[in-house]
Amino acid sequence: MNTYPSDAAAPLEGTLDLNAMEETHSALSALIERYRTDRKTLERKYPLDLSAAHQARIRQFTTDWLAALERLDFAALNTVERIDYVLFRDHLRNALRHLDIQAKSREEMMPLLPFLPTLLALEEARQRMEWADPAQTAATLHIAKSQIADARLKIEQDLETAKQAGVRAYKPTVANRAATATDHLMEALKHWHAFYQGYDPLFSWWVEAPYQVVEKALEEFAIFLRVKVVGVKSDDQDTIIGDPIGREALLTELAAERIPYTPEELIAIAERELAWCEAEMQRASGELGYTDWHDALEYVKALHVAPGRQPGMIRDLALEAIAFLEARDLVTIPSLARETWRMEMMTAAQQRVNPFFLGGEVIQVSFPTQDMTHEEKRMSMRGNNIHFARATVQHELIPGHHLQGYMLQRYRTYRKVFHTPFWIEGWALYWEMLLWELGFPKSPENRIGMLFWRTHRCARIIFSLRFHLEEMTPQECIEMLVARVGHERANATAEVRRSFNGSYPPLYQAAYMLGGLQMWALRRECVASGQMTDRAFHDAILKEHCIPIEILRAILLQQEIPPDSASTWRFYDLPAGP
To answer: Which residues contact 241 (CB under 8 A, 6 or more apart)?
Structure first.
């Protein structure tokens, strides 16, 4: 049997066992921490992602670190050091690939923003602490004003020519990206202007008037792009545009996560898992006397607590999940982790983007507020009903994100730079799968609640990947969530907005189910084979920090990782093609 440290008996409740907290650090850990600190320092010095100077400096920094790492003698490293070498090398190579993707993204929108280098140069010079000659700066702003006007004129001409030809002059997603870049440019210029204004009287005398002209021109230009090129109203806060990255970039992202599947194969996996969910949903619905699972889902949605009662229900559900885990000895739950989780209520504005719970040390509860409309209140109550919530609380607290976060702060903390959503979200989703197998749902209503979320995670893979492949529009994604998952329309819209508003990386939504399936396959190898107990397996995962699951697999199975190894682990068997 694999003797992993977490097989040892847990310390008595209320005692502090320092020996149990010891861990073997890699000799590379100090280097990894140094890299992370140095990079953050450099990013504070060069904060403008739009800037070519920023891109060049970060690229040089990353290239230098990669060269230094590759000079190490891999054969002389111990097991933990070899793991960290591969993790660090993969991270640095992926950082360079991301710079390539960012450069391509910048290049695509430059025809819309010919004035960008002229104006960025002002803030870049300030960052280099170069004195801004007031008269020359005013001349530069005058040039920029003309460039903005010329850019607008050319775009209008291109739009008219394209209209006559019956084609698009510009991709709406690229134009929307350019509008967002213009917003960021305005913020950078405001910072630049505030540095001098009022401190250098001659600067104010020369620059104030042309600066105000350029600021207004940029504001109008961003609106022009959104209205005339993207095709939304100037005050539109609801239309979702997004920015699909394309198949090539998706393959790059998947390689970085050590997932040796194509986007099309991952969609096939999701469809297969979704079919299982639909069959189970139909079975549970039949037990309730419904022939159509949509009707059963509607019945379950109506089973919500009264306004004001949601916090008490969440508390009780959290305690129920903890008791279930401890009764089966599934994972070590430190007493401090059990004690220190907290609860906050989400505002109406927050629920517009995140209509369901968010979690970690603080579980953020979604339920109607008095300033919502009647329809918004009804949708929030239905979308956060008792049985949906029962399947969410353990995902967000224990054994999910709160327990994860607690352990991440205490074991191999230097690996935080290798953060991956496939480990973060995959762990919480994996527990939904395991609890299902262990009989956590006690009724058909419970099962429908759990199946709703599992169906949702399958759909996330499909709609997010197909969006980035440019095969689905945001509106089509919303319709899919309503029809195939059973979402309230407002909640489906919020889910799609959250997915594509730039707050999450492209693979994040796919990472829930795919990461869960990876951990499920790993449990089959480690626990079902008799090598580890459930508790040892789960404790081991939590003590290796947030890393790609294929690397975690090599650690738990004590496999050697060659220095230039490529991803090979096919964790899910797809049926052979025709």
So the answer is: 172, 173, 176, 230, 232, 474, 500
Domain for residue 564, yes or no?
A: no
Q: What is the pLDDT of residues 211-249, one digit of tens each?
A: 999 999 999 999 999 999 998 876 666 788 889 999 999
Instruction: Single out the residue in 109, 132, 149 at which a domain terminates.
Output: 109
pLDDT in tens, 109-144: 999 999 999 999 999 999 999 999 999 999 999 999
Bridge partner list, 343: 363
The angle that helices 172-196 and 79-109 make with each other, rounded to 10 degrees, is: 100
Q: Estimate the crossing angle of helix 79-109 against helix 29-45, to 10 degrees.
A: 20
Instruction: Convert the pLDDT of each residue in 181-193 to its tens digit.
Output: 999 999 999 999 9
Q: Which two tokens stand for residue 556?
A: 């738990």
As a whole number of angstroms, the distance between CA 331 and CA 85 comes to 29
Over its C-alpha atoms, the chain yields an Rg (Å, rounded) of 26
Dihedral class, residue 14 (left if φ above 0, else alpha if ψ from -120 to 50, else beta): left
Q: Is residue 399 reached through a cis peptide bond, with omega within 30 degrees of 0 on the bond before it?
A: yes
**Domain-embedded: residue 573:** no
Determine the 3-state secondary structure of 363 from DSSP.
strand
Decide if 175 contacts 103 (C-beta within 8 A). no
DSSP conformation class of 574 = P
Co-location of 462 and 509 in the same domain: yes
Name the residue with tokens 């170069």: 130
Residue 345 lies in a domain: yes
* Maximum separation of any 2 CA atoms in the chain, in Å: 81
Q: Answer for the pair 367, 380: CB distance below 8 angstroms, yes or no.
A: yes
Tokens of 164: 């006559």
Give the domain range for residue 198. 113-230
Identify the CA nearest to 546 among candidates 429, 428, 418, 426.
418
